[in-house]
Amino acid sequence: MAQEELKKRKRSDYKFHLEYRTRWSDNDMYDHMNNSIYYFLFDSIVNTYLIAHCSLDPPTSSQIGLVVHSHCDYFAPVGFPAVVDLALRVNKLGKSSVTYEIGVFERGKEQVKAVGECVYVFVDRETRKPMAEGIEPLKEGLGKVIAEKAHI
Amino acid sequence: MAQEELKKRKRSDYKFHLEYRTRWSDNDMYDHMNNSIYYFLFDSIVNTYLIAHCSLDPPTSSQIGLVVHSHCDYFAPVGFPAVVDLALRVNKLGKSSVTYEIGVFERGKEQVKAVGECVYVFVDRETRKPMAEGIEPLKEGLGKVIAEKAHI
Amino acid sequence: MAQEELKKRKRSDYKFHLEYRTRWSDNDMYDHMNNSIYYFLFDSIVNTYLIAHCSLDPPTSSQIGLVVHSHCDYFAPVGFPAVVDLALRVNKLGKSSVTYEIGVFERGKEQVKAVGECVYVFVDRETRKPMAEGIEPLKEGLGKVIAEKAHI
Amino acid sequence: MAQEELKKRKRSDYKFHLEYRTRWSDNDMYDHMNNSIYYFLFDSIVNTYLIAHCSLDPPTSSQIGLVVHSHCDYFAPVGFPAVVDLALRVNKLGKSSVTYEIGVFERGKEQVKAVGECVYVFVDRETRKPMAEGIEPLKEGLGKVIAEKAHI
Predict the structure, then answer these.
(1) Residue C82 DSSP code
(2) What is the pTM of this model?
(3) Min CA distance, A26 vs chain D (Å)?
(4) Which of A6, B87, B101, C130 could form a disulfide with C96, with the two C-beta atoms 3.0–4.6 Å apart?
(5) Is residue C151 over pLDDT 80?
(6) Which residues pair with D73 in a beta bridge?
């Protein structure tokens, strides 16, 4: 999607929200949160949602989600000691893969700081092969955060 | 201090509290927060307190705090997606150094998970030499979180 | 670029190489290097090249490079204790921005594990505004790692 | 041990050596490797040794090593893009616990930068209880890096 469109994202464009306190070490030498840290946060909100609302249990579930693609557009800096508001939605729900979009906001501020997407493929824990219907057990929970106009 | 004593630490033994949400990547292969992550959290509560209550501004203040010693005793595991309650106190306040103690608790649980100490020496930002009275500008704020019976 | 094309990348498609030992904490609960860690490695090879071959000095240079976009395609897992061979090239060199491509290989293995791109905009250290000719002082060094057929 | 003694550590005081390239994100806002990162490196050399020389296989071995105590004394800074030489020895070998000492040196420089210790207790993977003879299968390998005059 065009950066111009993503830059207009609002908290209300997302369905699940989670706040995260930044850490001292998130800031790199340029005194702002390092670009890589955003991906740590993406993983965190995605897995928190899967555990809390889709019955995923990472140490034991038979399927595990592996990231096959991720990207992020950075619009404005944020950094320690700010609190960030993460916002999640599902943009695409396939048979064995899910595309999540995550918006990063700063507490108390309206404008979005960064927007990213991660594509997870669900594979069998043992064989690490995609499971034909890997999403099935998670579908009810994921269905609740699907973006309007998303490709399902 | 003896591990037996530290193991009895309660939230009320500390003067400043800050909650931190754990991240997916905090857990290592053994499905619990990696031991190194605790030190990231120690740095985070210490610097949050210095910024919020002692007027420290990391990118510009003339003195900066460097860690010269740190240690931690781990009593019980905690891990993603738990929220941890960090708790801070000053155990010793020298002319250019401060010894902080941090307790790590899990939200909703009473027993302490880990207790650590970090010794920061305040040095001049440019020369990186200890400042004779480096603590002076921070003293009022630090004084408020000194542990009873601490060595001042 | 199509994933099928990227999947065929060889070490010889890149101009600068740097090996990195993985760390215990790079592996997440699924016993492979977490997807976010790749971005730490991208930053590391880019900045190593800029420091070693383009005279960038991160703590003092008047321009600093901020990431405005990054993405990565993951083809096969790699994890601790493997050593990874990072490979770098410049895909696009603008007036104030540079697009780097990084390939991640595992020592002793031929097939590429992941390929990513990062777009850095060079801004003035103080104002954090893009510098019209921010790339100028780095251009000679960057020119040496430009990909054939890249957009310059 | 007294800091004065530790500060005199030489590479030859250790039995196993491993070099690690620092990463961009290792440096914090003060332009040197953040104190917490040292513990990531400690874990990395310890587990590399256990895997390479003691037949430990972290994803499947019946015993796993949990850190119950760690500490570090920092003598001089080191930071990206330096390469660090890690050095390992066993200071104490108990029935179910091992005390490792790690020295951190910078490539090309003699003086030690930091020295730390980590105490690992080997527990059963399932019950997470200490294994009476947890060290037994690792003993031959660990025996080769025991410090002279160590407590065995």
Answers:
(1) P
(2) 0.95
(3) 8
(4) C130
(5) no
(6) B69, D115
- Residue A52 has which token pair? 């809390």
B-D interface: how many C-beta pairs under 8 angstroms? 64
Q: Is C130 on the interface with A (CB under 8 A)?
A: no
Domain ranges, ordered by start, for chain D? 3-151
C47 contact residues in D (CB cutoff 8 A): 24, 80-81
Nearby residues of C108 by Cβ (< 8 Å), 6 or more positions away: none
Burial classification of residue C13, based on how many CB atoms lie within 10 Å of its CB (0-12 exposed, 13-18 middle, 19 or more buried): middle
Is residue D98 predicted with pLDDT exceeding 90?
Answer: yes
pLDDT in tens, B85-95: 999 999 999 99
Rounded CA separation B51/C113 (Å): 42
CATH number of C3-151: 3.10.129.10
Q: Of the candidates A142, A151, A129, which has an alpha carbon nearest to the alpha carbon of residue A63? A: A129
**Residues C126, C137: Cα–Cα separation, whole Å:** 18
Return the HEC string of B33-84.
Answer: ECCCHHHHHHHHHHHHHHHHHCCCCCCCCCEEEEEEEEEEEECCCCCCCCEE
Q: Who among C31, C40, C51 is closest to D81 (CB)?
A: C51
Alpha helices, DSSP H, located in chain C? 3-6, 35-53, 139-143
φ, ψ dihedrals at D33, nearest 5°: -60, 125
CA distance D47 to D97: 14
User: CA angle, D115 as apex, D113 and D117 as ends, to 5°?
Assistant: 160
DSSP, res C138:
G
Judged by CB atoms within 8 Å, which residues 32-51 of A form the interface with D? Answer: 34, 36
> Which chain D residue lies closest to B121 (C-alpha atoms)?
D74
